[in-house]
Specification:
With 124 residues, the protein is mainly alpha-helical. Helices cover 35% and strands 3% of the residues. It is rod-shaped and about 100 Å long.
Length: 124
């Protein structure tokens, strides 16, 4: 018997479970594993996947609505008056409070920052 016939006989004896076990042993979520998961998926998941196939260019994104980010709603008060000058001046102390949290900025996300306090302008 030649090698190709031996190989064909060995392949014919493989079951789907054997192939999935080999996929997992290789560390791959292969086509046989995918088909098994899809066959066992709930109907609402199958509906979502069929809709996704109709629009392949549409991808899921992060939430588009505003959420609380864990910072205090109102910044700590700074009663130090600010006078207009040629130098850059902070309206609040960044070490104490930052209105936009670190690593929170993403494309398409907007921020509305308000501040208040005592501000004077020199007139010449």
């Amino acid at each position: 018997m030649n090698e190709s016939v031996k190989y064909e006989n060995a392949v014919r004896r493989l079951t789907v479970d054997d192939i999935i076990a080999r996929e997992r042993a290789c560390g791959v979520f292969g086509p046989f594993s995918q088909q098994r998961w899809l066959a066992r998926a709930p109907q609402h998941i199958k509906d979502h996947l069929s809709r996704a196939r109709k629009f392949p260019g549409v991808y899921g994104a992060s939430q588009g609505f505003g959420t609380m980010v864990g910072n205090p709603v109102y910044p700590p008060s700074s009663f130090t008056p600010i006078t207009a000058s040629a130098t850059e001046t902070n309206f609040w102390t960044p070490a104490i409070w930052t209105p936009i949290p670190a690593n929170d900025m993403t494309a398409g996300k907007g921020y509305h920052v308000k501040c208040g306090g005592i501000f004077t302008s020199t007139g010449t």
